[in-house]
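Backbone-to-sequence.
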């Protein structure tokens, strides 16, 4: 036996296989078996679909193994061979995929762009392990906004998340690079409406549109620009972009909502943090990405 209660029964170039001798969760089991690897490395092996339990790919950390189960690791994952552009998967389990999206990539198809979307690429990715697999969009990021997005792996999980979005999402933090010197942190509240030309705008009349609340805090500023941490209390279309225009500090590169300069060659908006209650396990998951280097270089 190579570890307590676990017996390695086969090892070759294609796979390593073990027979389970005592019941435990899959991640714990793999951490014991692969004690020479770090926790994040082992999680990545799971996420990439390289772990097979009794002939079925499993990506769920808390999959409970039973005595006699066969666990193997494929050195090359078919899903891992799918090359994705503008997407990095930062979490995957049986219910969800969480990604970091680059600026310039559409979340889902439009009339002009059908192929190079986050949705299309992730669909190809999940179907590489099973042609029947599908993904479902839970929320969107604008094409030119980078950062964290979440997709569901079933219609049921999508509906659970969308129906309880306000209760499930515990934190949505964005980083915004805006024009001008923002004098103090604050909150913007308005009712958002959409014009016939698909431009969102604010109304101060109560219930005249969808209520939108945006909190913002100054991180740093110079004579021309300010870097803000923005927290959404509501998630309306173009909400941050409209509200930054409302306070007289449009987002850099956002011509649609009043920007007159673009020193970074992209929209100055990044979805940095997403924390939510997992719809199946009830566990709170929190994901955070770095502030884009292009934002910081302006200071």
């Amino acid at each position: 036996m190579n570890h307590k209660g676990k017996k390695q029964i086969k090892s070759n170039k294609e796979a390593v296989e073990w027979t389970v001798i005592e019941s435990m969760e899959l991640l714990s089991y793999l951490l014991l078996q692969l004690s020479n690897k770090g926790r994040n490395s082992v999680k990545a092996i799971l996420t990439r679909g390289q772990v097979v339990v009794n002939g079925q790919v499993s990506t769920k950390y808390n999959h409970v193994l039973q005595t006699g189960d066969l666990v193997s690791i494929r050195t090359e994952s078919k899903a891992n061979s799918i090359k994705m552009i503008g997407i990095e998967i930062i979490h995957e389990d049986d219910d969800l995929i969480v990604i970091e999206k680059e600026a310039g990539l559409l979340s889902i198809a439009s009339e002009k762009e059908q192929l190079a979307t986050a949705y299309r690429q992730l669909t190809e990715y999940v179907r590489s392990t099973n042609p029947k697999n599908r993904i479902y969009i839970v929320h969107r990021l604008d094409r030119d906004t980078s950062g964290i997005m979440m997709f569901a792996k079933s219609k049921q999980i999508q509906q659970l998340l969308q129906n309880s979005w306000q209760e499930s999402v515990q934190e949505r933090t964005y980083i915004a690079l805006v024009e001008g010197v923002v004098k103090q942190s604050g909150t913007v509240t308005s009712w958002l409406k959409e014009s016939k030309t698909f431009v969102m705008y604010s109304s101060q009349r109560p219930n005249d549109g969808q209520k939108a609340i945006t909190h913002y805090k100054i991180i740093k500023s110079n004579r021309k620009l300010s870097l803000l941490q923005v927290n959404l209390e509501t998630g309306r279309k173009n909400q941050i972009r409209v509200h930054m225009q409302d306070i007289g500090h449009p987002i850099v590169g956002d011509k649609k909502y009043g920007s007159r300069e673009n020193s970074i060659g992209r929209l100055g908006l990044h979805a940095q943090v997403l924390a939510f209650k997992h719809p199946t396990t009830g566990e709170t998951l929190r994901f955070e990405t770095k502030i884009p280097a292009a934002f910081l270089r302006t200071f």
